[in-house]
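User: Reviewer 2 asked us to show a designed sequence for the structure in our supplementary figure. I'm pasting the structure tokens here. Could you produce the per-position amino acids so we can include them in the response letter?
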């Protein structure tokens, strides 16, 4: 699977429709067959790059105007839910390091009360922070 923000143009001698379809199904942005014209290649590259730039600008503008709606559209979570999810995932990473107390980790990820942190953590992972550590301590990633 390719990273979506990197344009991919396939340049090949394969001209059969099945090969072209396979290229596009592999998520290529364009498919050029040999022999190719350099000006055509240059024009296609410029169009792809310009199109990506326009998309970035549109998304940036929409984020400024409707940031909470955009987070929901992109993640399926509210902005608050997204931040809480991120904080709890970070807490899980810190737990596995086994360098800090649970209370310290709770404070590091923005909780002022350990009890509230533990309740949210259990809701997210179906385990208390201590149980999570015990279950995953040997599978650190």
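Assistant: Here is a per-position design you can include in the supplement:
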């Amino acid at each position: 699977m390719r990273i979506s923000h990197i344009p991919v143009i396939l340049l090949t001698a394969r001209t059969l429709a099945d090969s072209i379809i396979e290229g596009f199904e592999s998520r290529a942005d364009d498919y050029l067959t040999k022999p190719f014209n350099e000006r055509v290649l240059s024009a296609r590259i410029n169009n792809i790059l310009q199109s990506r730039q326009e998309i970035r600008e549109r998304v940036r503008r929409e984020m400024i105007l409707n940031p909470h709606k955009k987070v929901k559209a992109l993640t399926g979570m509210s902005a608050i839910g997204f931040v809480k999810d991120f904080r709890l995932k970070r807490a899980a990473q810190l737990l596995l390091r086994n360098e800090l107390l649970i209370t310290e980790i709770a404070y590091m990820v923005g909780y002022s009360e350990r009890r509230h942190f533990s309740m949210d953590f259990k809701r997210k992972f179906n385990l208390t922070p201590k149980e999570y550590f015990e279950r995953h301590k040997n599978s650190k990633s």
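For the response letter, you might also mention the following. The longest strand covers residues 9-12. The chain has a mean pLDDT of 88.
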